[in-house]
What we know:
Layout: E1 2-7, H1 12-19, E2 27-32, E3 47-48, E4 64-65, H2 82-93, H3 100-111, E5 115-119, H4 121-132, E6 141-145, H5 158-170, E7 173-176, H6 180-187, E8 193-197, H7 206-212, E9 223-227, H8 236-245, E10 254-258, H9 262-275, E11 279-282, H10 287-294, E12 299-302, H11 311-319, E13 322-326, E14 342-344, H12 349-361, H13 363-380, H14 383-407
Parallel strand pairs: 1-2, 1-5, 2-3, 3-4, 5-6, 6-7, 7-8, 9-10, 9-12, 10-11, 12-13, 13-14
Amino acid sequence: MRILFVGTAWSHHLSRWINQLNGQGWDIHLFPLNADEGVHPDLADLTVHDAIHGRPRGAAASVRAVDDFWPLVRDGYPFARGAMTARRIERNFFPRRADRAWRLAYAIRKLRPDIVHSMTIYPASDLIMQAREHLTGEFPVWMVSSWGSDIYLFPRLSQYAEKSRAALSSCDYFICDCQRDVESARRYGFRGEVLGVVSGAGGFDVGWLNKLARVTPTSRRRLIMMKGQQHIAGRALVGVRALELCADALRDYRLAVFYASPDVEAAVELLSQATGIPATIVSKVPYEELLELFGSARVSIGLGISDGLPLSLLEAMAMGAFPVQSGTSCADEWTLDGETCLIVPPEDPEAVAAAVRRAVSDDALVDAAAETNARVVAEQFDNSVLRPRIVAMYEQAFTQGRRARAATPGS
Length: 411
């Protein structure tokens, strides 16, 4: 089986998902959304296409890199400034090749994959829709994965609505991480088959997580973790304001903010100065170190007006941190509000502050939740559980695709 993924090559989510297919003997390829981006160092045993500057940054030794258009240009050979010269020639004499969708179409035509899998509806699926305009004949089986705000938010915004609906109405198979999003996909035009509702980042090695976990009960921990994204969906600044409102209950605590946007970094610094709460911005740390921080945290805060199943929520659950999570994610599909999580409105700092106060004062609540949440992750999100399900999705799509082609006259 040959699979071509289209997505962000440096994405931790994408690398985790693709690596679950290692060892199947399948031919795995990746077309990055941006030709200049690096490759996540955990990606292994696949071919990266459109590598216009030679080997992508961060690529592991088992990653093969190819430039479908100028295969002889590598590390400056045969020109002193090979890649730059080749791109200049391309831009001046072959302008069509500067079109990223055309380049993807070229890769599809060259590879003839059995399955094309876009990792996100926007922009990955939109790029595939554009590439199809450059192709004739039968298109490969097309799978789409929905991440984060792909379904819950983007189709409601005029900037993304038409493109999102066009992709959903054209693809064959759909994968999402919330049961909530299945109905939404149908509502926005999806007519194919839902392969499964499964975490978009795949599973965990729960045995490895257990080795990282601290024996310290959650109730004795004195760290608050907070997701720091402030953007179209993220609302970390509401979290900063909430912590300011309940600062009197956090005198013995410290704060760690991960994935922080620049404005959130500034707000956290000012919060620390005003309240005396020690605060750290966690950036570019090894994944193991981030998990260890969750394993030291009593509370994990994640706020946004839209999300799917946040990986940070599962990480908190796995490592014993009590989640305070906005209700606009699908946290309610895996937790119980008031028992294993406190679900809050994403733009109400007073409600978030009240939830944090409860989480830092109720020892029995956080200790009981830690035990239950760890069991949920072990039973539902361990690699041994999810990997077979995910492999079966591709086998199903491949088999059904072959049958459909065999039944098509002239195929």
